[in-house]
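Colleagues,

Please find the record for the two-part complex below.
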Amino acid sequence: MNLITFLGIYFFISALFIAQPWFSRRNVVFGVVFADDQIWKNDNVRKIIRAYLISAVFAVFAILIILAPLVAAGWTNDMLAFNLSLALLILVETLVFYAATRKTRAYKQMNKPDPELSSRNVIVAVKGDKETLFPLSWLLILLPLMIATFIVAILGYPYMPSSIPTHFGLTGPDHWAPKSWMTVLSPVFFELMLAVLVLFIRRAPASVKGNPKAAPDYARFRKLMTLLMIVTGLITELIFLVIVISFIHPVSQIWLIAPTIAVIILLPVMMLIYFRFARSKTPSGPILDDDAKWLWGQFYFNRSDPSLFVEKRVGIGYTINMARPGAWMVVIGIITVAILLSVWSR
Amino acid sequence: MQLSIDLGSSDQPIYQQIRDEIVSGIASGQLRDGDPLPSVRTLGAEIGVNLHTVNKAYKLLQRDGFIEIQRSRGTFVRAGDTAKNAAGFIESSGRRIQALVSDALSLKIDRTVLHHMIDHYYDELEGKGS
């Protein structure tokens, strides 16, 4: 990997990390919930944000400065340095975020309790699942391509070469593995995992509760996110189908590049949906103060909540309820399958 | 229709609150016969309580004939068979009213006060519906 690509990816991921606090609902600052939707304009909060930005940006460069001599001295190879820099980035930025969470909590406790903020009362709307959840039957759209990939893999197996490409770079495949059922069928496993995730996201509750207006129009936002996941799933399935076909018959690169670009376009689309249907909404009414359930401001641990997945308090997307063994099983299952597949495909 | 639940209440278990809130929704006309209710899973997630808690509330509602749980289609309000429910209510609520009157009498609260309170809640619920 050359230096420009490395720095490009590194700074891009850093920017996403640093921007995370802005991807939360209006009354949430560093994972701490307020009843006041103008809280981001508060002077004390602004000071905390400024301090966060300075330390977060400083950390990005500090990691580079620490790692640079190691690479220059030839102690690590490029790939290791890249992985190390990202691991350090995640760790340090999480700590910087946590420092800001603590400051925000301290500021909140300093103020007199907001009567609109209660740790006891919840008001929920009574609506049928049909109105609030994305229809389950739509998930069937994911099936045909999955089945097609499976059939092509099974029927095409005898015609595939003894060495199968398992990793694709910008210029085409750059990693190969000996042919086995595991390597050939791995795309189908990935597709199954994706479908399972959509199933959980479909009913993940909002990160801010208290009353139906605490996260206005959340049901619609969740439906859109589920739809986006299904579209992502479909494009990913298309990529996998093309890859499996390419094992048997040469396929033009355009069939891989086009869907990959489509997936990349979906990222800003997701951000737009977030700002339009979540961040721009003004919360009102009584808000549930559940800061204690969000460890470090971003890790959800709530024994009484039956949800395995919930909306992230900070950042776009969904996170697990760490108090649920079932949620751990899903995550460990996915990681295990991913590790097994990558080991098998070496 | 909205349910208001006090998660920290020491004198009323959450399942009882869910049950009472839904019944009051039916009483006030905010919930009508055939209206869909959220599934046990969805309501549990929204309130942030155990599925057993919601299940218990739904079982009580089903027993008293306020809701109908259809396996594949979901849960629906049943407010249609009033005559049968009313007969069951008069039969079963005697003890609850007796306990209420005992409490009031032991505190030397006059019956007119209770009458007024009952009238007040009747008015409140009937007012919500219209």
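The mean pLDDT of chain B is 88.

Comments are welcome before we finalize the supplementary table.
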